[in-house]
Design goal:
Blueprint: H1 2-7, H2 11-16, E1 22-23, E2 28-31, E3 40-43, H3 46-54, H4 67-81, H5 90-101, H6 106-113, H7 118-123, H8 129-138
Antiparallel strand pairs: 1-2, 2-3
Length: 144
């Protein structure tokens, strides 16, 4: 879950991620196969690097589990957390919103998420007015 929120990767992208595509030195993860058919390289946040460093490296894949195993674990987690409507894909929406709230530009967020259409990218964005208020508090409107 943490890596999904930190990177904006889809479930299938996380499950197919291989260690030889991860560069902790460059702070990137390369995804040769994506849903839209266009490979992309995702920048890794410090938290994402921390998560990756903590994982065992006994397999070529970063997460050597099946999609079905993740689905079943997700269903149990949702039930225990009391959020039955939460989908794994919602973590991707959260990631995109956080990228914008952190101040990344549209092209930067699109590079992370792999969106090629700005309109679709905007559908993934759910900004919080509180975050905007915090950002506005840091700038002085009317001054250049």
């Amino acid at each position: 879950m943490e890596l999904a929120v930190e990177t904006g990767m889809r479930r299938g992208e996380l499950l197919s991620l291989q260690w030889h595509h991860v560069s902790l030195e460059k702070r990137t993860a390369h995804l040769p196969i994506t849903k839209n058919g266009h490979a992309r390289t995702v920048a890794l946040t410090p938290k994402a690097i921390e998560v990756l460093k903590a994982l065992p490296r006994g397999d070529a894949r970063v997460f050597p589990v099946s999609g079905n195993a993740v689905r079943l674990a997700w269903e149990r987690l949702r039930k225990r957390a009391g959020v039955p409507g939460l989908r794994f894909h919602d973590l991707r929406h959260e990631a995109v919103s956080r990228f914008f709230e952190a101040g990344l530009s549209i092209p930067e967020v699109a590079l992370m998420s792999g969106h090629r259409d700005t309109r679709m990218l905007m559908r993934y964005t759910h900004l919080r007015p509180e975050a905007l208020a915090e950002k506005l508090a840091r700038v002085s409107l009317g001054q250049t």
